[in-house]
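Entry 0007
Protein: glutamate decarboxylase
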Amino acid sequence: IHVDAASGGFIAPFTDAGAGGAKWNFELPRVKSINTSGHKFGLVSAGLGWIIWRDEAYLPEFLVFELHYLGGTEKSYTLNFSRPGAQVVVQYYNLVHLGFSGYRGIMENCLTVYLYSFYFSSIAFSLIVTN
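Output (structure tokens):
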């Protein structure tokens, strides 16, 4: 099973809502890979997504490219070869700096704002200032 956690990969693990919900991670033996997008709720600018495999054996061979460069051969499974590394550095910084508790606080705050939006959309209010 591949888990496409493009948006939820940075939400569910860090919230009370996700803590008791259905498991979708490597605790399930049939889950072989998980992807998420750092540029969504991972707090990185656009252009960063990543995937992890349970084991290198599950990495499909057709995704692996052999690069012959400077007299050697390297294997790569990146989709873009030459790109700036800023998003990767920022993602790493966020993961180290914020840690689990930091991401948890941010995601719980997002859910709180979401719940308040229902309250504020239901109350009557009038404009005090006009043009």
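Curator remark: The chain has a mean pLDDT of 86. The longest helix spans residues 86-122.
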